[in-house]
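haha ok so turns out i had the wrong file open the whole time. this is the CORRECT one, sorry everyone. sequence first:
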Amino acid sequence: MLEFIRQNSELMQIGASLTTTLVWLVYLHVLLRGFREQRRSSVLINRGGGEDIDARCLVSNMGAQPAYLLDVLACIETDEGADVSSVVDRRELRREELERATEMTGQGPLPSGGYVDIGSFKDIAKRADSDIRLDDMSRRTIKLIAVAATNQASHIVAAVREFDLVPEDNSVSVRPRSLEAKQLRSRRSRKQVRKALEMLQNRSGTGPEIAAELQNV
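then structure:
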């Protein structure tokens, strides 16, 4: 055995060096992956304060970096089709009733772990020009897309979550379709959201056209 080791010492040293290098490469990969996961953005869209249409809609930043909430888009699907509106501004409030003009909008910086209340689901439906009369309302779905920017990202970050508005007796229940918001991380989906946001802000497309752009995100 000793003679075998003596005769193949160089090969064994090379093998040991390669094994050590491989271990360090795996370790480095694990460290880099953990670092990327910590730096990755995470935007949540939650229902709070109840389960009916008066429940609040909260947008939270759970990423490690601060973010700036640019807009919240609402796509409401009905029997007649889909339409998209920006619902981040609190248009139901009067400016003279507020202490600060910034309270008119949900836009603004969100620290890590911070959140903003963009209003009740009833307010959101009204901002989207949707008829929510309880006496003749049919079941419909509202897709919310929160769009934000971070100082570490060269592209926008976004998340989407769908809620069903279901008439029940004398109220309307808000039921999320998924446990949490879907993070839009692919280049294609972020490009679609950017294009839809630009079309909406520039008024270069109709609601159904913008809704079609967001159909698969």
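The radius of gyration is 25 Å.
again sry for the mixup
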